[in-house]
Amino acid sequence: MRLEIDALSHRYGEELAVDDVSFGIEAGELVALVGPSGCGKTTVVQSVAGHVRPTAGRIALRGEDVTDVPPEARGVSVVFQRSTLYPHMTVGENVAYGLGAQDIAPARREELVADHLELVSLADQRAARPAELSGGQRRRAELARALAPSPDVLLLDEPLSALDRTLRIQLRDEIARIQRETGVTTLFVTHDQEDAMALADRLVVMNGGRIVASGRPRDLYESPPTPFVASFLGRANAFDATVLDADPLTLRRGDGTVEVSGFKADAPGVSEGSTVTCHVHPGDLSVRPIGTETTDPSIRGTVTRVADVGRRYDVTVGIGAGEDLVAEQVSSPPAVDDDVAVAFPADRLHLFDREAGRRVS
Ligand code: ATP
């Protein structure tokens, strides 16, 4: 069922927590609302759920304005970060409780509980109490309870945040499967860009109460519209430079120059003398000993840190002017204090006008 959020704003006293937010979710789509802590995500979700009455704007479901409809009559289910299962009820009773006061024959009620426990692979825990379940099982029980009444929209507010990494990834895959099987229109809220990218058909990125980008996860990652989106979906990894020449693109940093031949500098923002912010995702950088550079553009620097994170090394290279770049490297890391060249393919460079903060290529 299509969900429409239209010009939503909300103030807590003086603070404008949500500032003119509009987006829609198509029937059956899974959209992730993603952004750093405090950017207003929960306030948006609570407005859709009906727990917050927005200061301005409107929420529409099935084409109807539901802004003033009470939460229980909206056809919306929510799973929160914290467990809200009733401890004195069994798992089965909790799921049945999700069906509320709906007029459903007892046999059908039974069937719905059994089907939804089956859906979340919890059929064998029906008689257990929440305290007897693991953290992941409790999340599944909450999902079953939320889905049992066949909501038009499922809201998931940071449902994975309290879980350890292995369990988080497992449950993330489960949520993807369950959402596909049920086809329920879903808004998934998270501050974790990896969870968002792994799950969502589409991302809506918020910062400071506003939407700053939206689109397919891969498109936003590969063509971030602003330095914030580049850093948020990847990792902060940028340097400033002055454009010496636009074609071939030649950048100056301090007393060094970087020629980025092959870069498509067809945007008007890339003009001689302009200052640009350059971003390269860490996985697109490679660190080489001086003298072994290829034809790829590169910047010289000194290794300041090598972090062994198991499946890769994170190599931090100081490139002068107080700026660092991090390269993710799977093998043969350099040593701290090595002088190196940090190289990247020309088409992996993201260029932003420093003043306007907008992508220029
Ligand atoms: P988090 O992930 O930390 O919950 P969020 O992106 O979900 O962050 P919100 O919880 O919507 O953001 O909060 C947005 C802003 O509104 C924050 O600055 C927060 O301090 C403020 N805020 C949220 N709830 C209230 C409240 N009940 N009263 C006053 N201010 C609030």
Care to describe what's here?
Part of the ABC transporter complex WtpABC involved in molybdate/tungstate import. Responsible for energy coupling to the transport system. One of its GO terms (cellular component) is ATP-binding cassette (ABC) transporter complex. This protein is of the alpha+beta class and 361 residues long. The protein is elongated. It has a six-stranded mixed β-sheet, with helices on both faces. It is built from eight helices and 21 strands. It has helices at 41-49, 91-98, 106-119, 135-147, 165-182, 193-199, 217-222, 227-233; strands spanning 3-12, 15-25, 30-34, 56-61, 64-65, 76-79, 153-157, 185-190, 202-207, 210-215, 238-246, 249-253, 256-260, 275-279, 286-289, 298-308, 313-318, 324-329, 339-343, 350-353, 358-359. Helices cover 23% and strands 34% of the residues. A hairpin with a 2-residue loop joins strand 11 (238-246) and strand 12. Bound molecules: adenosine-5'-triphosphate (ATP). Adenosine-5'-triphosphate (ATP) binds next to strand 2 and helix 1.
